Amino acid sequence: MEIFVLLSIGALAGTMAGLLGIGGGAIIVPVLAWVFERQGVSPAVLMHVAVGTSLATLIATSLSSIRAHHKRRAIQWPVFRSITPGILAGGLLGSSIAGLLSGEDLRIVFGVVILFVAAQMARGMTTKPHRTLPGKVGMIGAGTVIGTISALLGIGGGAMSVPFMTWCNIDARQAVATAAAIGLPIAVAGTLGFLIHGWGNPQLPAASLGYINLPAFAGVVAASVLFAPFGARIAHRIQPLTLKRIFAIFLVVMGLRMLLF
Asked: What's the predicted TM-score (pTM) here?
């Protein structure tokens, strides 16, 4: 049953990664937490392992999603290059903060932040026509914030970067595609941090490297990399406003699910 669950959330996460540029972490973290609870993993590390494993899966999912969006020339590579330094710094910072929090605190932070982002996305359906991306310093600052929160929660960054880019008048499809690319440095930096901070913890489940559980990682990735291109195809066939609304509704559902976990 657990193998079926992992493959199912991998397929769904991959689809959502391609469709919304979110990396799928908002789906993966709650379900992994449920799987680990059923396995009897200690509550002290349960959320940390769920978040760390989610970030590791996002490396593979992001690569698959990037390839699909790049074929459609939708990724804004200048935006990616300008925001990545902050993303990398934030990814390491977020994973370090997560290591200091209790499992319960991490769960609550996850749910609250996701709901806040959903509210901002729903409110920001229209933006001022003159609003543009900030300069170099502003992009590094935005990247640091996005990377910190994303690594802290185990999400790919799209939950933060898509609203930010659409707020700056980047087309929704291009924002989703660029968020998929941004998710890769977040995943790499965050995974490294969770691996280091969890190394040698005696409460970890079997077959774990730091806070990365290898069997769960393999189960999710096996399906997610296959379904990410499918989500990308859908993203380029629906209207941008519809894409924004789907994104906001999705975040509300995931945020409430985690708070009621």
From this structure: 0.76
